[in-house]
Amino acid sequence: MTHIDGSRALVVGATGVLGTLVAERLAAGGARLALSGRDGARLAERAADGAGIAVDLTDEEAPESVVRRAVETLGGLDVIVLAAGVVGFDSVAATADQDLETLFTVNALAPMRIVSAALPALRESAEAGREPVVLALTGIVAELPTAGLASYSASKAALAAYFTAAGRELRRSGIRLLDARPGHTETGLADRPLFGTAPKFPQGHAPDAVADRLVRAIRDGETALPPGAFAGA
Fold first, then answer.
1. CB neighbourhood size of 25 (10 A)
2. Half-sphere exposure of residue 62: CA atoms within 13 angstroms, side-chain side
């Protein structure tokens, strides 16, 4: 179990819908927060919830920078929430013409590098008995790749595979990795694709309910949230 009250938490993607909701719940539970996002102005509006760290995850120095600044601000790290993401819609025939570098950097490479950069702080947290956890939102496409979302599915599956292997590697160090795979959630992300046009999705999960489930999993020591864990959300 991870104690939220008094924890030092970094939320990456804190200006997105789910990132915002999770950050609000962590703050309400007594966590001290560092909030990371690309939009400095929106982060400034969230100053009551935590310190803002404006970074663009497509910058190769961003993962190390955001971890370093969070540790400097909070004095360590006990919780990391990786909620940043972009989506693209493409057919197989069109994939070669799309911005795959941005898609894979934001959805897979940057989160992997953040985990690696945060290891010293997470190990220190574990040694202090604080039960550190890193949560990633990979989504249902990580295990059920979807036609019309081939590259997006692949980017999320890459991060899911990393979390599975890294979680086994880090378990002995007392560091918990938590992979959350909710189905389509009504965050508006599909209306802002990096490329392509979204298909018509059925009604998705309510963001508030998904955020509640994520924070409960952080608190209760869970290591995986498959799509079924969000039933009724």
1. 19
2. 20
Distance, in Å, from the CA atom of 73 to the CA atom of 53, rounded to the nearest integer, reads 10
Angle at 164 between CA 159 and CA 168, to 5 degrees: 140
Q: By the 8 A CB rule, do 189 and 87 touch?
A: yes
- The letter for the amino acid at 113 is R
| Residue 89, beta-bridge partner list | none
Q: How many CB atoms lie within 10 A of CB 20?
A: 22
For residues 57 and 14, the answer to whether their CB atoms sit within 8 Å is: no
- pLDDT digits 0-9 by tens, 206-220: 999 999 999 999 999
Q: Are 83 and 136 in contact (CB under 8 A)?
A: no
pLDDT for position 16: 94
* pLDDT one-digit tens code per residue, 77-87: 999 999 999 99
Is pTM, for the whole model, over 0.85? yes
Angle between helices 110-127 and 62-74 (to 10 degrees): 30
